[in-house]
Every structure is written in structure tokens, then in C-alpha cells.
UniProtKB/TrEMBL annotation:
Coiled-coil regions, chain positions: 344-371
Protein name: Sensor histidine kinase
Membrane topology type: Multi-pass membrane protein
Positions of transmembrane segments: 7-30
Compartment annotation: Cell membrane
Domain HAMP: 303-356
One cellular component (GO) term of this entry: plasma membrane
Organism: Paenibacillus donghaensis
GO molecular function: phosphorelay sensor kinase activity
């Protein structure tokens, strides 16, 4: 994937998507909160409505409770062929028509209509009513039937019916029936006072799903399917979302004090969601703005940045091919992309100059190599001369001169003829042995030496000429100054992944000041080192440059206790 697309994708991933997710989560959370808030509002409204309904119906029930116990009604129902007089009818009217909401009533015996007031319903028709069975099962308790379930809404004269069985005051035997018709204004007044949201509605529904009454006055008597009316309904919440009259709505329900009725509040979801439309719109606007910002950022910044990077990449490809052409800067923005181009141009120019410099140095190096090849005759001349001296010493029987010449020849072959910097450890020790053998002829019995190299370390590679300068330093600064015979010990030890070469002498030793003076003046034209040019500091620096830390020399000395110098080098296989 191209860098520009990666950056654009990262911006969309880190800005656009979080904005959309945040807006969606806020919208959903606010919508759920509005649903719960609306449900709580309607639940309280339903609770207040049911309280008012209970009070109003109880007021009617109190009137009928008092009336059915009066002698006028009790005596009229107990006598089968009793004929009501005008005064008795007036007395019954006074008992029941003393409430403004009661419009009419009917008083029935066991098998006939005894008396009615503006309610000419025969006994046979009364037994066909939907509420008759419930009245029989109620055993004297009042049974209510709303306009939507007693059929009065369909006939165009809606009434609220209370029906009850009249019992003998003393024996509690059934002696008749009382049916009271109440104006629907009673329900209308209660429901009209119920608090609802705009376009919301409150229903009074019976167990069969018929709408007994509702605030809007629409759909009374229609049958509906509400899940909370079913006996298997087990949800603990008192609200849910479902379709009502082909519109998605929030439905809140509350069982009424009347066991046969349930109050339900209907709120269209578009009314609730309208409260959260602003949040949804803000989320959409923020998402759109963030997406447009991403494309604008890509258009005016990323494209120029990627173009600068592509120019640098193409320039690097040209450099790889050996073409050093500066990158032209079309537009200056004075930012890091311009610094990148400027830096690349400077680097390209410097590399071109360095290449030219290296080519010049290579030419000089080849010329020096030619001179070195011409000078190789000198070592061969030295070896041939030493061979002639050795032959003359053997012919004259001088074995010491022969041994000294042989050691000097081997010493020169290792130090001069070996072009490689790394040599086997046993060859380095052999070089030291020949050097000490030559020095024995000079110092005679003034010193002795011991060399110990384990067989496991013989073939490991080491830097050339690192032990001989240490031994030479011990001879000139320790052994030469001693009156007693001196001793030099050289041994190699294994230390994990490293090797340690230990050079010991039994000389007078030296203090820190002497060591620092020797270390700092080692490169000067001292008498002892003027010819060799190699000392402790030289060996340490060469080891440190080639192998890095912690490789190099460790010097341990004290006046009167000799000196010990440790050379730490890594194990290098040939």
C-alpha cells in the first residue's frame, strides 16, 4: 500500500471512525434514556389515572351498595308478584338517581324485570349481555363494563355499565339484579386529565384485548393484541416497543385496580426519537466534516509530503546507480519536507565529493602498492644475507651465532612477511619465543622465561604483535635494572568466550605516576622505543579499535612486587 493511502487510511481510522462511533453511541444512549424517561413519565401518569378511576368507580359503587340494602329494593325483590307503587318508585329513584353521572338503571327479579328508569332492557336481553356471566360469578360484587366491551359504543350511545347481583340482606340469597348505566363522561373526565405527550394516548383495555376506553376516543371497542395481556408474559419491565395501529410505538402498561382491566399508554417512537434527532444530525455533520477534513488534509498536505518523499526515494535510486543529481524543489514550504530535500542534496553532493576523493586515494594506493612490490626485494635480501651468515657460522663451528641468526630470521618472517593482521595464537607465542632467545644471547644468564599455551587455545586467532611489545617492556624496564636474575612468565588462559594472556615479571615494579608517565610519553622519541615504535599504549589502542570494549590491557604493579599485565582478547576461530 502506498504511503499516501496509508496516511489517509490512518486519519480515517483515528478520526472519522471514532467520531461516527461516538455519535452512534451517544445517539443510542440518549434514545434509550428518552425511552426510559417517557416510560417512567407514563407509568406515573397511569398510576394517577388508575387512582382517579378507582375513586370515581368507588363513588358509584358506594351509592349502589347503599341502595340495595334499603327496604324499598329488598322488599320489592323478595315478593314474586310485588307491584311497585308510585311512591315506592320515587323512593327507589331517589336512592339511585342522586349522582350526576348515573343516567338510568334497571332492577330485575329472579325471572323478570321489576323496574327500570330510562333503560328499557328486558330480562331476556339482560341475560344475553357480555357482562352477565361475570356478574353471576362476582357473587354480589359490582362488575363494570366499559363502552368498548358492552357494545354501547357501536350503537352510538356509549355508557359505562355497573351490574351486580342483589342478595337478601339477612340470608344472603340471590334475590335479583341491579344494572346501573353511567355516563361515559366519568371516564372521559378522568382520561382527559391524564398527562400525556403530544400525540400520545392512554387506553383502558380488558383481558380479552378490547379497548374499553381511551383518551383520544378513537378505536373504542376494537380488539388489539397486547403481549402483557397473555398469562405467559414474564418480562419484568413495564414497557416495550411494538407496532400499534401500524405505527412503531413505546407501550407502557399498568394493571388496574379492577382485575379485568389494564391501563396502557401509547407513545409514537417518532415522537421520542425527535428528541434525539439533533444528536444524530450533529453526529452526521461531525462525521462529514471529519471526512472532508481528511480529504482536504490529504489534498493540501499529504500529497505534497509524499511527493517530497518520492522525490527523495527516486534520488536514492539514482544514487544507487551512481548518478548524483540534486533534487529540484518546486515549491518551498519551509518545513521538514524541504529540510529532507535539502539534506539529501547536501548528502548527494558530499558523497560525490567523497567518491572522487576515494578514487584519488585509490590511485595513490595502487601507486604505493607498486612501490611496495618493488621494495619486497629488501626482505628477501635480508633473509638471504642471514642464511649466508648462518652457513658461515656452521662452517666455523659457532653454534650460538647460528642459533641467533635462525631465531632472528624466524622473528623477521613473522613480523615482516605476514601481511594479515590476525595470526594463530601459537604463532604469536612462537614469535615471542624467538625474540626471547635472541635477547638471551645479549643478557646471557641475567633472566629466564617460561611460555605456556594450552592445546585448546593454539589455533584461535589473535592480533599480531601484541605480546612481544609487553615482553620487551618488561626486559628494558624491569629485568635490565635488576642485579639478581630475572624471570618472565607468559601464559594463555581461557575465560568463557574470551582469552587472557598474562605476562609476569619479578622486577622492581612501579607506581601509578611512573605508569602514567610511561603511558603518556610512549610515542615520544625515547631511547628504548625509538626503533620499535610499539609499546603498552599502542597495543591497548590497537586491541580496543579492532575488538572494542572491554578488550585491551590491564596493568597490575606495585613497587617491590613485580608487574603483571593481562591482555584480554576474544576467541576468534580461524
Amino acid at each position: 500500500m502506498k504511503l499516501r493511502r496509508k496516511i489517509l487510511f490512518a486519519i480515517i481510522l483515528l478520526v472519522f471512525i471514532p467520531v461516527i462511533v461516538m455519535g452512534t453511541v451517544s445517539y443510542v444512549h440518549f434514545s434509550n434514556a428518552m425511552e426510559k424517561k417517557s416510560s417512567n413519565f407514563y407509568w406515573i401518569s397511569l398510576l394517577e389515572t388508575d387512582r382517579k378511576l378507582k375513586f370515581a368507580l368507588s363513588e358509584i359503587s358506594s351509592i349502589t351498595n347503599s341502595a340495595i340494602t334499603q327496604p324499598a329494593i329488598q322488599q320489592s325483590l323478595k315478593q314474586p308478584d310485588f307491584v311497585l307503587t308510585y311512591d315506592l318508585k320515587q323512593e327507589i329513584n331517589n336512592l339511585l338517581i342522586n349522582h350526576p353521572m348515573i343516567t338510568s338503571f334497571s332492577l330485575y327479579g329472579k325471572d323478570r324485570m321489576l323496574y327500570q328508569y330510562n333503560a328499557p332492557m328486558s330480562f331476556a336481553d339482560m341475560k344475553k349481555q357480555t357482562w352477565y356471566g361475570a356478574m353471576e360469578r362476582a357473587e354480589g360484587r359490582p362488575v363494570w363494563s366499559g363502552p368498548g366491551e358492552n357494545g354501547s359504543e357501536v350503537s352510538g350511545h356509549p355508557v359505562l355499565v355497573q351490574a351486580r347481583v342483589v342478595k337478601d340482606y339477612y340470608s344472603l340469597e340471590d334475590i335479583g339484579y341491579l344494572v346501573v348505566y353511567v355516563k361515559p363522561d366519568l371516564l372521559d373526565q378522568i382520561f382527559w386529565e391524564a398527562a400525556t405527550l403530544k400525540k400520545g394516548d392512554i387506553l383502558l383495555v380488558n383481558k380479552q384485548g378490547n379497548i374499553v376506553f381511551n383518551k383520544s376516543g378513537e378505536h373504542i371497542g376494537q380488539r388489539t393484541e397486547f403481549p402483557f395481556l397473555e398469562s405467559v408474559y414474564t418480562k419484568e419491565q413495564n414497557y416495550y416497543i411494538d407496532n400499534y395501529q401500524e405505527e412503531k410505538s413505546l407501550i407502557t402498561f399498568l394493571p388496574s385496580h379492577n382485575a379485568d382491566w389494564v391501563l396502557a399508554a401509547i407513545t409514537p417512537m417518532n415522537l421520542i426519537s425527535s428528541e434525539s434527532v439533533s444528536i444524530r444530525n450533529i453526529a452526521v455533520i461531525l462525521g462529514t466534516v471529519s471526512l472532508l477534513s481528511a480529504f482536504m488534509f490529504d489534498r493540501y498536505f499529504i500529497r505534497r509530503l509524499v511527493r517530497s518523499i518520492n522525490s527523495a526515494v527516486n534520488g536514492m535510486k539514482r544514487v544507487k546507480q551512481g548518478i548524483f543529481i540534486p533534487i529540484p524543489a518546486s515549491h518551498r514550504a519551509d518545513d521538514e519536507s524541504d529540510l529532507l530535500i535539502d539534506g539529501f542534496n547536501r548528502m548527494s553532493t558530499q558523497i560525490n565529493e567523497l567518491i572522487e576523493q576515494v578514487q584519488t586515494e585509490q590511485a595513490r594506493k595502487k601507486e604505493a602498492e607498486m612501490q611496495a612490490l618493488m621494495a619486497q626485494i629488501n626482505p628477501h635480501f635480508i633473509y638471504n644475507s642471514l642464511e649466508s651468515i648462518n652457513s658461515m657460522a656452521v662452517l666455523q663451528g659457532n653454534k650460538d651465532i647460528s642459533k641467533m641468526v635462525i631465531s632472528l630470521g624466524k622473528l623477521l618472517r613473522i613480523s615482516i612477511s605476514q601481511n594479515q593482521e590476525l595470526i594463530p595464537l601459537h604463532m604469536e607465542f612462537e614469535h615471542v619465543r624467538h625474540y626471547l632467545d635472541i635477547q638471551k644471547f645479549r643478557f646471557e644468564d641475567k633472566f629466564s622465561y617460561a611460555i605456556d599455551i594450552p592445546g585448546t587455545l593454539r589455533t584461535y586467532m589473535t592480533q599480531k604483535l601484541i605480546v612481544q611489545p609487553i615482553v620487551e617492556n618488561a626486559l628494558y624496564h624491569a629485568i635490565e635494572q635488576m642485579e639478581d636474575p630475572g624471570f618472565i612468565s607468559i601464559e594463555a588462559q581461557e575465560c568463557g568466550t574470551d582469552m587472557i594472556i598474562i605476562v609476569k615479571d619479578n622486577g622492581p615494579g612501579f607506581d601509578l605516576a611512573t605508569l602514567m608517565s610511561l603511558w603518556n610519553k610512549e610515542r615520544s622519541n625515547q631511547k628504548k622505543y625509538n626503533d620499535s615504535g610499539v609499546g603498552l599504549k599502542n597495543v591497548h589502542e590497537r586491541l580496543n579499535i579492532r575488538f572494542g570494549n572491554p578488550y585491551g590491557l590491564l596493568v597490575c604493579s606495585s613497587p617491590g612486587f613485580g608487574s603483571t599485565i593481562c591482555i584480554r582478547i576474544p576467541k576468534i576461530l580461524p
